Amino acid sequence: MPVLPERREQIRSAHAALILQVVAACQNVHLRAPLEESLRVAAANGWGDLVAVIRHILAGQRAQGLLQGLDEEDGTIIESILMGLQNPETLPKAGDPADPTLAAPGLASVILAARRGEPEALAWLGRMASQMQRAGGDMARMGAALGPLSRGQYDRLKLERGMGPLGRSLLQSVLDALAKAEQQ
């Protein structure tokens, strides 16, 4: 499945703190202790492959071969770290929120790919739903809606149950992006 630039930027924005933390720890050994706690938590939450590659980077490896075998999300994170080590100008900005205008088309493309049975999309969608549910509030409700959306269930009233205005707006944007993508 090709990676859309918008999705790559969403991934970079969502993981900016980790990307910046790894780059800083590579440049200053004294920053590794706080990073270790983040890596331990990440590994415990199913990000073992990503953590293993980050440990290789911390040990000084910089080869593009580190990207082999990684899924789309992990690969984008590692690529961002490697690029950031070479050129800090490429790093995502700390605290920049993910652009919600990019979220809907990116989610819609993953939902459609998952509906076609693409394994990477199914895995990515599952991880995204888990992350959103951990965030709570509207994001948790939107995360819960990803499964039904990937099965073609578009009943907006059911999907938006319990959402506030921002959640309903994101859901409507995703539904619009899905309708647009299906017409193509």
TrEMBL record:
Organism's domain of life?
Bacteria
UniProt protein name? DUF1641 domain-containing protein
From what organism does this protein derive?
Acidithiobacillus ferriphilus
